[in-house]
Fold this protein.
Amino acid sequence: MLSTHRLHLLNQFKLRGTVTQVAEALAYSPSAVSQQLAQLETEAGSRLFEPAGRGIRLTPQGEVLAAHAARILRLVEEAETDLASADQVRGEIKIATFQTAALTLIPALLADLRRLHPELIVRFRVLQPDLAINALLAHDYDLVLGEEYEGQELSLSPAVDRLDFLKDQMRAYCPSGLKSDAANFEDLEGLPWVMEPSGKPARAWAESLCRQHGFEPLVRFESDDLVVHQRLIATGHAVAILPDLIMRSEKLVDTHVITAPAAPSRTVFQATRRASSGRLAIVAARNALRSEGIRFRCESGPI
């Protein structure tokens, strides 16, 4: 690979005409410049200079490379200038997110980033947190929004930089038509439940919570779409545990809202590769998500 430093010396030689003038301009010794230009010939695999009186001049191959060097150095300078003087976040960021965040946090994130950084392109896909972390490490995504339940902790690589930014309280919802006097979590025993499919962390956590309160849930319906859970509650067919995040704009009538004594919650986190955590687009997205988490906590209250 050709050295940009030596290409810079070649460009200076083309502009100034002699090794001595190049050395004077750059505060090098003439012998140091000559050595570097000789090394460039070796890297290029072509004869770049030929004798001219007491000095040297460019060969035709040298002229070709000098022209390329000028263009390369301009591009490098433009890149350095853009990075040094950029007042806007540019480029593209790819986000993997879980469903609830896609319905609630992502629209707010898109609005904030479009307002603050209009030249930033955001792409996202709904993906399970464990799959999303693997895709993050494979460079398929730049940022992951994930959820974690007590007792279902994720094991993350040291290469992942994780930031927990929201505690999302979980509450049980029971249609009054199923049990008119439901007041405690134990009152939900024997009622039809809707939960996420078996094998999902949320399902294992919800079943464990029911067992802690002395009963095995009667799971009649399964769906990983929490909007389906909402509809089954609203139409009086099932009990479910739902996070405040998805219920922030949903008000269910004729429904008992039950919070377990320990006020269970899930952790919402954002993660990126540690090596890219300082990238401006990622920093901007993480800051916007942190702000949205703060807004949600301020807006949330007793349901």
Observations:
- The chain has a mean pLDDT of 89.
